[in-house]
Amino acid sequence: MSEETQARTSSGEEIRSASGEIEIDAPPERVWRALTEAAELERWFPLEAKVEPGPDGRIWMGWGNEFGAWSPVEVWDPPHHLRISWTLQDGEEASAQITDYRLEGGDGRTVLRVVTSGFPDGAEWDDMVEGTRLGWVFELRQLKHYLEHHDGEDRAAAYLRRRVRIPRSDAWDRLFRPGTGVETLAGSVFDRTPPWQLALVSAEPPQGMIRITVDPSHDDPEARDVAVFVAAWGQAAEQVPEVAETWRRRLGQVFPEGQALDA
Q: Lower CB count within 10 Å: N or C terminus of the chain?
């Protein structure tokens, strides 16, 4: 579903890309709207979005707290090709990023391929590349789930984080050890990549989505953010606050020394 590729800039500097691909039971025109309208983006991707459409436009996406940025449009070719850019900061290092969306369709279906490129070829960017790759595994599945099962329904979402200063593998093992309640999580798992990510279509909230990750902190190189994202559509959206509160308590119990960073 996704991969990491390598390329070189015109100056010869090697860069890396993280990509994903998914087939969606919806025509390209419908998928294009989901990529380029603010209300549609908020139903599957960011918590907040703003769009100034067109070839000279820009798209703003935010996930609460410190996550939010405008992305200038570089290619606007509906419903086939969208490209946006922004600057990604990793500690003191910055990198120009491009995300390229290409849509191909027929018989009411669309194959969507996404490539995020511009990661420098240094070990300090390894976590960012892998995190982006796994991010597309989840986000593209969320887009597919929305369009195929909840088209036009508003989404309720909660994004919870607990910042800890222990190794990623230790944080993962502590979260998934018996007795935390996480081992009883019910649903259809579509990605399990320890110690990075668990992603599933959930039973609670029904036909919602849950993503659990252990990510590097963007502003503290010694820290890890244990994050839980909960989303649901339609009537099930009413259950998101209750489910989120359960996760908030659970994270506090498993990582009592951690710092809460809820969006």
A: N
Q: Provide the domain limits for residue 94.
A: 2-149
Q: Are residues 116 and 167 in the same domain?
A: no
Task: Tell whether the model's pLDDT for residue 1 goes beyond 60.
Answer: no
The torsion defined by the Cα of 258, 193, 148 and 28, in degrees rounded to 10, comes to 110
Domain shared by 76 and 199, yes or no:
no
CB 258 within 8 A of CB 251: yes
Q: Is 153 helix (H, G, I), strand (E, B) or coil?
A: coil
Q: How many CB atoms lie within 10 A of CB 198?
A: 23
Q: Which residue has the tokens 């018989």?
A: 107
pLDDT at 222: 87
First-to-last alpha carbon distance for the chain, in angstroms, is: 28
Tens-place pLDDT, residues 90-141: 555 556 899 999 999 989 999 999 999 999 888 888 998 999 999 999 999 9
How many domains, the chain? Answer: 2
160 and 142 co-located in one domain: no
CATH number of the domain that residue 115 is part of: 3.30.530.20
d(CA 67, CA 26): 30
DSSP codes joined into one string, 103-154: EEEETTEEEEEEEEEEEESSGGGHHHHHHHHHHHHHHHHHHHHHHHHSTT--
- Give the C-alpha separation, 175 to 107, whole Å: 44
CA distance 240 to 67: 21
Task: Give pTM, 2 decimals.
Answer: 0.91
Domain final residue pick, 149, 166, 186: 149
* pLDDT tens digits for range 173-220: 999 999 998 878 899 999 999 999 999 999 999 999 999 999 988 778
Whether residues 222 and 192 fall in one domain? yes
